[in-house]
Amino acid sequence: MPGSHGSLTKAGKVRNQTPKVESHSVQKKIPRVRNFKHYTQRVVLSNFAGQPESLGAIKAKRAAQPKFGES
Asked: What counts of helices (H) and strands (E) characterise the chain?
């Protein structure tokens, strides 16, 4: 193989030089509160997750509308 990008003796040099930074943990929401929020969004308000103008949301809106000629 003609040439290699840097010698293997220098592998991992930059990663070993960078200081270790501890990640701050993000607390998860309480499941009861999270489930209640999801319930209100999905069932009560009938909002679907994701982008409002996505193909799935448009299909769901059409399915929820009454068909032409039906009451």
From this structure: 3, 0
> What pLDDT is recorded for position 3?
63
For tokens 């930059």, the residue is 14
Distance CA 40, CA 37 (A): 5
Please state, in angstroms and rounded to a whole number, the distance separating the CA atoms of residues 28 and 34. 9
Kindly list the domain boundaries of the chain, sorted by start residue: 29-66
| pLDDT of 1 | 54
* Alpha-carbon gap, residue 14 to 63, rounded angstroms: 55
What is the pLDDT at residue 36? 94
Q: Are 60 and 53 in contact (CB under 8 A)?
A: no
The CA radius of gyration of the chain, in Å to the nearest whole number, is 26
pTM for this model (two decimals): 0.36
For residues 53 and 41, what is the distance between their CA atoms, to the nearest angstrom? 17
